[in-house]
Specification:
It is a single chain. The protein is α/β, with parallel strands linked by helices. It has 8 helices and 10 strands. An 8-stranded parallel sheet has the order 4-1-5-10-9-6-7-8, sandwiched between helices. A two-stranded antiparallel sheet has the order 2-3.
Length: about 290
């Protein structure tokens, strides 16, 4: 009765619509963790819809990658159910993400977290620093996110990298908007972000970033690192950002020189831009998996 019916059902609701065995948790090298949360955003809300929009757009990815000359999905990509948000406080939500990530990290999976607002990255990074004591974070972002407290909480998305810095070193790339408070913090700790547009996107510039990183790297990508001309669907767009190939060439170089153990892509607000933005985020995730996972 069920013979030859495999083509009459819609693709499964997982990243890239992959079939078994490429989605089996036991054998997949990669685990996708959707975190639909945006309770601390103050301008454009909607990042809670980002994970599902990325997964939906990923159904239309071409599985063969021209640059890498391989079908990236063959490493195995398992998509977990979305985490149910904790709305009582951002700190409790971060703790929930931390507990789930800690469990995943014990399975030696390459973790890809799809946000959601940037605050939830802290839960992932905190858990991974307990496994990798020499972990460092590469942050691609338009904003420094180094405020100590914002809108009444230390766990606002504008404070995320201040909290991450309490756990491990950070290297910031693409920054082009910063507060006086954050600049004083940078000066106090002798930190120098890679600002745009003062710093070019040349190979020499990229090599400086590589030299600033440790050997084991987690990458946190706020999509507003891109210029709004190609990524308008974000909570806080900022003009003068990076272009597609600028970001890809940097990520590829990092993968060639460092051990990337996971990454996140956050702050997609699908309602603020065209569907192309969600597809760009999905392709970014797929490309970075291809760079980082053998």
């Amino acid at each position: 009765m069920m013979d030859n019916l495999e083509n009459v059902f819609l693709p499964p609701s997982n990243f890239a619509g992959l079939p078994s065995p490429y989605t089996d948790f036991a054998t997949a090298k990669v685990v996708i963790l959707p975190v639909p949360y945006d309770s601390t955003t103050e301008w454009h809300s909607g990042a809670r819809d980002g994970p599902q929009a990325i997964i939906a757009a990923s159904q239309y990815l071409e599985m063969y990658d021209i640059e890498l000359d391989k079908e990236i999905f063959r490493a195995g990509i398992h998509t977990l159910p979305a985490i149910e948000p904790v709305l009582s406080s951002p700190q409790k939500m971060i703790q929930r993400v931390y507990r789930i990530t800690k469990g995943i990290s014990q399975k030696d999976k390459f973790l890809v977290m799809l946000g959601g607002e940037h605050s939830v990255s802290l839960g992932v990074i905190h858990a991974l620093t307990e496994k990798y004591t020499n972990l460092c974070v590469l942050q691609l972002d338009a904003h420094a996110d180094l405020r100590d407290k914002y809108m009444g909480t230390k766990y606002n998305h504008a404070c995320i990298m201040r909290r991450v810095f309490e756990h491990c070193p950070i290297t910031q790339v693409g920054i082009r908007s910063i507060s006086w408070e954050e600049q004083q913090f940078l000066n106090q700790h002798n930190m120098r972000p890679f600002y745009l547009p003062q710093t070019s996107t040349s190979l020499a510039y990229q090599q400086q970033i590589i030299n600033a990183l440790g050997d084991i790297v987690y990458i946190s990508i706020d999509l507003d690192v891109f210029d709004p001309s190609i990524m308008s669907a974000v909570a806080t767009p900022e003009p003068g950002g990076m272009q597609w190939h600028d970001v890809l060439s940097l990520l590829k170089l990092v993968s060639e020189h460092k051990h990337i153990i996971g990454f996140d892509i956050v702050e997609l607000c699908p309602g603020q831009g065209p569907a192309a933005c969600a597809f760009t985020a999905a392709k970014l995730a797929y490309k970075l998996i291809g760079y980082a996972v053998p």
